[in-house]
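Hello Y.,

Per our agreement to keep a running log of every chain we model this quarter, I'm adding this entry. I've kept the format consistent with earlier entries: sequence first, then predicted structure.
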Amino acid sequence: MKIYRTILLIIIACLMPLVSHAERNTDEGMFNHLSLGGTLGTTGYGIDVAMPCTKLVSLRAGVSILRIGEINFNAPTTLANVLTDMKIIDKDMEESLRNTDAAVLINPRLVNAHIIADIYPFKHSTFHFSAGVFVGNNTMLGVYNKTPGSFKFLNRANEYVEDYNRLFGTKYSPVGIQFGDYLLTADKNGNVDAEMRINPVRPYVGIGMGRCLGRTNRCSVMMDAGFMFWGTPKFRLNHDKTISSGDPQSSFLGTFSSLKAFPVIQLRIAGDIF
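Predicted structure for the entry above:
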C-alpha cells in the first residue's frame, strides 16, 4: 500500500504546477483547463480528455469501442445464377435454388484511439470545424457460417463448375455467397470465414456544435458529424487470400462494402477537471 500512496503523491506533485498555472492564466485559454468526457455515436461508446490550445483551437484525445455482437443474416448464393447460365437446371429447380439463402453471422467490431482538433471561427463561437485522425484495428467485421460445414454444397457445385469449364472451355465464375459486391467462397470443409479489412490509420474531418469545456459552468455538451476515411474495404477470405470488391450491387451491403469513408456522428458530454 505504501508504494501506491507514493505513486499518488508523485502524480499530485507533478500536477500541482499545472493547476497553479491554470489558476493564474484562466483568461489566456492556453492549456489551462482539462475536461473529461464520455462519448456515444456511430463509432460506439468511449471516453476522452480535452484542453484548449489557443483561444480558437481545442484538442481532444480518447478511445471508443464499437462492438454490437453477432448478427444473423441470410445471404444469397450465386448457385442459381451460375447453374442457370450453364443451362443445366429446369425452371422448378432454378426457383427452388433462388429461394435458398445461406445463414451467416456478421460480427461488427471497431476500436479507435483518436486525437482531434476543434477549430472555432470566432472566440465565442460554438460552431466549429474538426480535423484529426483515428487509429485502431484493421478488421471492421467478420462473416462466417452459422453452422460448421454447412456450405459443403457450394464446394460440390464449384467442383462441377470447374469440370464444366475444363470440358467446354468456358469461364464461369465460382459459386459462393454474395455479400454486397464481394463473392465469398467456402473452404474445403464447407466453411466461410471472412474479415473485412480497412486501413488502421483513418483521417477524420467534420463539423460540430458546442465546446469541449464549459464556459459558464463545469459541464459541456458537444455534437459532431463528419467522415472517417478508412480506404477501400477488402476481405481476407478463409485466412488465405485477400479479395477486392467486384461490381457494386444495388443493396445496402453493396453500398456499405464499397464505402471509402465511415460516417461519424458523436455526442460528447463532459465535465471540467480544472
